[in-house]
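To close the chapter, one final illustration. This time we ask the reader to focus less on the individual chains and more on the assembly as a whole: which components sit near each other, and how the overall shape emerges from the parts.
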Amino acid sequence: MGVRLELSDDLVTLTRAVCDVPSVSGDEGALADAVAAALGGVGHLEVLRDGDAVVARTQLGRATRVVVAGHLDTVPITGNLPTRLLDQDGEAVLWGRGTVDMKAGVAVLLSLAARLDAPSSDVTWVFYDHEEVAADLSGLQRLVEHHPDWLAGDFAVLGEPTAGGLEGGCNGTLRALVRLHGVAAHSARPWTGLNAVHLAGEVLRRLEAYEPATVSVDGLDFRESLHAVLISGGTATNVIPDECVVTVNYRFAPSRSVADASQHVREVFAGHDVEVVDAAGGARPGLDHPAARRFADAVLAVTGGAPSAKLGWTDVARFAELGIPAVNFGPGDPLLAHTADERCPVRQIEQVHAALRAWLTA
Amino acid sequence: MGVRLELSDDLVTLTRAVCDVPSVSGDEGALADAVAAALGGVGHLEVLRDGDAVVARTQLGRATRVVVAGHLDTVPITGNLPTRLLDQDGEAVLWGRGTVDMKAGVAVLLSLAARLDAPSSDVTWVFYDHEEVAADLSGLQRLVEHHPDWLAGDFAVLGEPTAGGLEGGCNGTLRALVRLHGVAAHSARPWTGLNAVHLAGEVLRRLEAYEPATVSVDGLDFRESLHAVLISGGTATNVIPDECVVTVNYRFAPSRSVADASQHVREVFAGHDVEVVDAAGGARPGLDHPAARRFADAVLAVTGGAPSAKLGWTDVARFAELGIPAVNFGPGDPLLAHTADERCPVRQIEQVHAALRAWLTA
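The assembled structure is written out below.
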């Protein structure tokens, strides 16, 4: 007997219901079943399914089609479920795993999917699995490979948390290993060896001295960064280490290709052994595209503010690869994503709902 | 049915027999049994035992008593047993685990213990377990605690490998953790955190700039050193590390106390979180002591050369704590200790045997 979602519930009730069905990556089945069942009862939608991804679309013959997407999975629960509705300085706040990343967004999408039977563009609503884990498990990438036609569209919105602001594109991300090679020796006679950990001092010095660029792309400022995320060296407390490995993460503007970014990292660490082990290109904001322009005008009329650049990598990059301009727009402060204290103001959920509704009915 | 050692065998045969009984730390029983049985058959010795430590002593009523000691255990075997007798550029060399550290020395001691029925000083021969592992397991320390009288003497010689040279005293050794504290953040927005691995750059810089002292103690030069032996930081490739730990090893001259050495390390890393986790003081060479002087004169008359400082920590420091001057003197190049290619020239074994014999019969 599965969980039942009532899509006509108010946003607070629906968000809590979605959050309170645990769906840590790999365990999205129960929530995907509930989503598919609820959407299956909506007359104006055709519902499709692949694994734990659910796609629901209108077929109204509109001139344009937009894709509105969100992932169903969360990072692991850390004592932060079930959800709680809190009063924080007079403001109603939903607390618990997924309230930010990104089940409040999912609830907004579900509510709109059920209500909007005559949107101004045809809409494809996409709910997918395995976003919070390794790229090769991605439910969205699986849809790209199995059913590229399900994702066809002129413009895409990803409901990732942006604190209710409009964030265009995303930075790319690259991971590289910088390996220092020394010569082992007994630590009572270190001068007979070469200390690889001491050699890493030069790598850390370059990281400290590094001045990251802020790159303007299509009118948005993408702030780059280059940081060590892991370091390890040494095997025993009486041995001079013969190897030290510094793992660096480079976040780069979408105007750079992965090849350019790799070359840049090699140049920063010139003279050292550098291996790029993982990279994903970013996505240009595409706000000069007419469909994106229309989206920005419609939602900013509701929310106020101005578009900014998305700094974390998101699945807008997959839409960019498909040639579909895409933006991030959702409730929840991205700085609270993945934290034990994940929480989202109810007002943001309602505002995102109102803005998307205004756009889709304009 | 245990292994049988023939103490009247030539040194090569006896060394090979001792090496070919595996006795990795914790597994010294078979060798200790064989040593106790062989020494038990020597009329002029009283044999005592505590666990896998065996003590054999003369009771001749001499004016002085010397302690001659060696450990029975080795580091793990890495395909380097049984021993082989090789010809290396015309020189006979014994190859295999323990030939350096320190079963050739043990064989020399066993051979002398059996033969010298009228030494010029009373002699206490000590063979002990658990030298190559954590200090709290040390068989010699156990004897200090259970039977301090068994170790009484005016002077001690430790048969640790010195390549047949006379090495006085030993450096102390200290291990400290230098912990850098940062603030975790998502690596897409590193400026919202503080990177603890980058902070470690300053620690490595101080290690690179560190100019180790060479300290003359009782006429011998003790070369000091301060090196990172381990480094670790970071938890995931998309998180700015909030902690980095550098483990440093300080080898310090025996003129410094552990307290002085700890203070020095704290000063080198002033401003950082430093925790001393392990320390053992060194031992002054004590070559100004009359008994040590007599030893040096006797053995250098056979070997030539001059005394030098022992840089690795050895159990001479335990004798120093008991107030007994002690030196290191044994066959085998210490740089080959613990290596898979451990090997010792037969000539060194014979020369150490001749030198100790000359000393004990002078």
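The first helix of chain A runs from residue 11 to 19. The two ends of chain A are 40 Å apart (CA to CA). With these observations in hand, you are ready for the problems at the end of the chapter.
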